[in-house]
Write a structure and sequence with these properties.
Blueprint: E1 5-8, H1 14-25, E2 29-34, H2 37-48, E3 54-58, H3 64-78, E4 83-86, H4 102-130, E5 133-138, H5 151-171, E6 176-183, H6 189-195, H7 198-205, H8 216-227, E7 238-241
Parallel strand pairs: 1-2, 1-4, 2-3, 4-5, 5-6, 6-7
This protein binds nicotinamide-adenine-dinucleotide (NAD).
Length: 247
């Protein structure tokens, strides 16, 4: 991945942060994006300390103007985009569907679905004429099965998978690949919020065949593989990283 231009959304915590560091260790040029400038600048300092050329760009993926500027700034800084990781996501608020609200629907869908769509739109506008590129969206095991109390999150991740497959079809003639990864539980703030308390988390993890959550670095490794020249014929796929959960 040396000198490849890699852009990551929601890169300041969890899987996004681990992915940024994994690409930095591969020698990529990085644009990391998120909503908190102080955390972003601290991460940039850490990445530059590894001898990597990197820039932080403030962007909330729910806002079209900010996504458009994020892509424009990436191209202005590095001249192209080789890899885009659409990682920003929210678990929303947990409730049964009869107790859900339009507010929670909007906030969950705006981040996970509108955000992914806007990123795809502006990334493809660069990659299609470029004639190369690779996009990886963050789905979830919740993109393939229902979860009690998380109906809206589940619906957003099913939508991310639909967007991934359609984008792959649009992009393939231009030699651009689009895939998604679908993690099961991953040790991040989101998993702690999702499970609610340590006892629930422990019980949930006993339902995973490998009996543990993934580390964010384990998800990052798969993302780097998909973005690399070791995966040139993989497109339109949803790659599970779930410890056997869906087996
Ligand atoms: N942790 C898990 O168990 C798990 C499992 C499957 C899929 N995922 C998916 O992986 C992705 C990353 O999740 P994570 O576990 O690292 O979560 P996290 O909460 O640790 O990190 C998510 C990051 O996205 C950012 N973000 C949220 N909304 C944003 C917005 N509107 N604009 C820009 N940035 C925004 C957050 O600030 C945070 O930095 C998400 O799409 C999530 O749905 C996580």
């Amino acid at each position: 991945m040396k000198k490849q231009v890699v852009m990551i959304t929601g890169a300041l915590a969890g899987i996004g942060r681990a992915t940024a560091l994994a690409f930095a260790n591969e020698g990529a040029n990085l644009i990391i994006s998120g909503r908190k400038p102080e955390i972003g600048e601290a991460l940039i300092k850490e990445i530059r300390g590894l001898g990597i050329d990197a820039e932080f760009v403030l962007a909330d993926v729910r806002k079209e103007e900010e996504v458009k500027k994020l892509i424009e700034k990436t191209v202005k800084r590095f001249g192209r985009i080789d890899v885009a990781i659409n990682n920003a996501g929210t678990e929303g608020k947990h409730a049964s569907l009869i107790d859900e609200t339009i507010e929670n629907y909007s906030s969950t869908f705006d981040t996970n679905v509108l955000g992914t769509f806007l990123c795809l739109k502006y990334e493809l506008k660069v990659m299609l004429p470029q004639g190369s590129g690779c996009i990886i969206n963050l789905s979830s095991a919740a993109g393939q099965k229902g979860f009690l109390g998380a109906g809206l999150y589940v619906a957003t991740k099913h939508a991310v998978e639909g967007l991934t497959k359609s984008a792959a079809l649009e992009a393939a003639p231009a030699n651009v690949r689009v895939n998604a990864v679908a993690p099961g539980p991953v040790e991040t703030g989101m998993l702690d919020r999702f499970t609610g308390d340590p006892e629930n988390k422990k019980n949930f993890l006993t339902t995973i065949p490998l009996q543990r959550a993934a580390l964010p670095e384990e998800v990052a490794q798969t993302i780097v593989f998909l973005a690399s020249d070791k995966a040139p014929y993989i497109t339109g796929q949803i790659i599970g990283i779930d410890g056997g959960f869906l087996a």
